[in-house]
Amino acid sequence: MTNYLDFEKPLADIEGKAEELRAMGRQNEDMDVEKEAKALDDKATKMLADLYKDLTPWRKCQVARHPNRPHCKDYIEALFDEYTPLAGDRNFADDHSVMGGLARLDGVPVMVIGHEKGHDTKTRIERNFGMARPEGYRKAIRLMEMASKFGLPVITLVDTPGAYPGKGAEERGQSEAIARSTQKCLEIGVPLISVIIGEGGSGGAVAFATANKVAMLEHSIYSVISPEGCASILWKDAEKMREAAEALRLTAQDLHKLGICDEIIPEPTGGAQRARDEVIKTVGKKLSKMLKDLSKHDSAALIKARRKKYLDLGKKGLAA
Asked: Are the CB atoms for 291 and 193 separated by under 8 Å?
């Protein structure tokens, strides 16, 4: 079943009419509806292209949050062989919003870590909608340390609204865990690649994405705060989220200009949710290429380049 976003409602009407016609044709074999249905399909294809030709930042936020976009679990199952999940932070608990473990990408041993949002009500609650608690970041730290010890490249898949802000998380040191995870990203002497596959929200994303190479899917977002949160603070009105999305410069295209995003991975017309297998395959190719490029450098060079990348952030934007 297709989930339509608010701005896709006209498209939903046309595709719905085409499906109704075909359903009538199946019920009555004497009716020839294919020609009319095909005309509606062509109209829908053109409308989809027009809708996605020049998305506003707010509409990109909606696409990035689409429930049918492929999630971390989908990428791991499709791209990585011999995936062996590793659980727990060896301190408090296992956070199901963060998944990670040993795997192979095109035969190369790697450590893969990512946020998982879940795909239905049950799994979304289990995964806490991709919002990690301190134990999730401490699990990531443990896995990054293991990867560094055994010389395994680290790949992170980022898709989170942000770190979980609950009372228990704060009591267990949420901000400290995020800071330590970010610090660990800067310290490990192996290639670190991050892909923003949906939402990159606040420090919860930075803790996984302080990488040598940061790639973003074309309609993903990466920001210090959500547009709704920003609007609530600046205008005391969450309905100002469209203006906030414009001001935050959170799109892959804006962030590439600012030097925060290194690569933009194209999505098919209509977004990743309309061609999941195609997008996953494209991400796999990009990961393999970035991994091959970074593997040419030794540990000292990787750490030095990573630190320089983040110390230099802002210079490109000021020059522009």
From this structure: yes
Tens digits of residue pLDDT in 215-241 = 999 999 999 999 999 999 999 998 899
Give Cβ neighbours of residue 73 (< 8 Å, ≥ 6 apart): 99, 116
How many Å apart are CA 22 and CA 315, to the nearest integer? 56
Q: How many CA atoms lie within 13 A of 169 on its CB side?
A: 20
Beta strands, E only, the chain: 81-85, 98-105, 108-115, 154-160, 192-201, 213-217, 221-223, 263-265
Task: Report long-range pairs for 53-59 (Cβ below 8 Å, ≥24 apart).
Answer: 55/219, 56/242, 56/245, 56/246, 57/221, 57/227, 57/242, 57/245, 57/246, 57/248, 57/249, 57/250, 57/251, 57/254, 58/227, 58/241, 58/242, 58/245, 58/246, 59/5, 59/7
How far lies 259's CA from each of 73, 163, 220, in Å?
Answer: 28, 24, 16
Considering the entire predicted model, what is its pTM? 0.90
What pLDDT is recorded for position 167?
A: 95
- CB under 8 Å to 178, separation ≥6 — which residues? 137, 163, 203, 204, 206, 207
Residue pair 161/129 in contact by the 8 Å Cβ criterion: yes
